[in-house]
Amino acid sequence: MNFPRPPLGPGLAHVTLKQTSFYYLALVVFTVTMIAFRAVVRSPFGRTLVAIRQNEVRVRYLGLDTDRFIFVALLISALMAGVSGALFGLLINFAYPLELDWHQSGNFVLMMILGGAGTIWGSFVGAFIYVIGKDIISTITPLWQNFLGAVFIACVLGFPRGIVGSLSALGRRRAVSEDVSANEAFDANAPIEVGRGV
Asked: What is the number of structural domains in the chain?
């Protein structure tokens, strides 16, 4: 189905979105989405979702309706998928049934695993690696899926939590080890007080 980009603006103030204008519109939507995701993750709702992911039974024992939280999370993800699908359709001025193929869902899972599930920037990094790798490797060989699969296996073996997740975990471990080293050095340099016997 072919369709033109609808004009943007109220009333008679219609603005036709060219390629550059549409790029900035998509950039604004992306920025607002990332800020919204960051706010959701840091909210009590987001913390509850993290707890559900780690141990849903324990969250149920705390008296929370986990099904409701999961349902709202699915609604948010469906909203983001709908917005991104609409932007993609407006980008190419075309919609085709192949975008509903189950392989597309597999691509999204692949991007998430590459970047790191449970992180804000993981999906972005995974999508960047997948799209850039696909565009570059497909120009070199028609067997680009094999090479992309090898990159995926290497990332899974080298970064079990995804690239962003593994780097975040490494940064947290270094911060903890530096804190422990600083505390040990402070304890070693502290003066020893000798108590007087009674």
From this structure: 2
